[in-house]
Amino acid sequence: MNGNQLVKKFIDELSKVQNINITPSNISKMRKVFQLSGRINSIIYIKSIANYPYHWGITKNTVDKIIEQNISWSIILLFKTQQTGFFISSNEYFDRINKSLWPFHQGDYKITEGKSLVGLPKFSTIDELVNLLLNQSSELLIDDLIQKAIQETEVNRIIFKNSKPGESISHKNLKKYVASQPELLGLPKDSLSFIEYPFPSGDKVDVAFNFNDNKWIVVEIELEGEIQNFIGLFQVIKYQALLRAVLKTQKLKGEVAGYLIANSIPEKIKTLANILNIKTKEISK
Question: What is d(CA 105, CA 201) in angstroms, rounded to the nearest whole number?
Fold first, then answer.
């Protein structure tokens, strides 16, 4: 079996994975570049070698064309079988190019077994590769959310500076409702609640609860929207840090947890909140 046959068998195997669609890209006439859609929206550039010694050439011109597509992409180095290979994320590619780890000759970056592959994820099944692709897509999604959140907050800062818009009635009502219902968060009914709880930094958290032996919950209220919920999530982290600093300054013991509450919260935000140990709750009021 030669390298081209290896690629064909690999694509056949990957096509069997549920909710992944594969289309050859016109970036490569040699059918080495494919567009994935469905569960994964990405471009993969495949290089293969069937027999030992294993060595690959990554064509710089092909990668440059892939980069112009402005979506997630990665390089797959197949060897021996259609289910074994190395995975090179876009970030890993740039890092190794910047460090001159791959010799460049006649338009190709040359990769051989040994130091060239140290630290690269290796897969031995199609399922392992799919997980690598999903992880990369998730990382890039978070990077994109971070950039959009930064842009959004900058725009809001400019608007606030010029016009100082007021709080919406919906946001104010939800804030008051949450403050009056500590049981919604599983807290004792007699918990102390504070609206617009202030910090020495000038920040104010939407709602704060104090209960049982100086335990605290800081709550950020949002309404809906992916970017707004993402920003709200990091607001919670900030308020947690501020309250912990205040308690430490006052030489008081206490526990501080955080909540993001909104009318609706996208699943990807809930997943990220779980990673950051922030609780979430949807309240459609």
Answer: 56
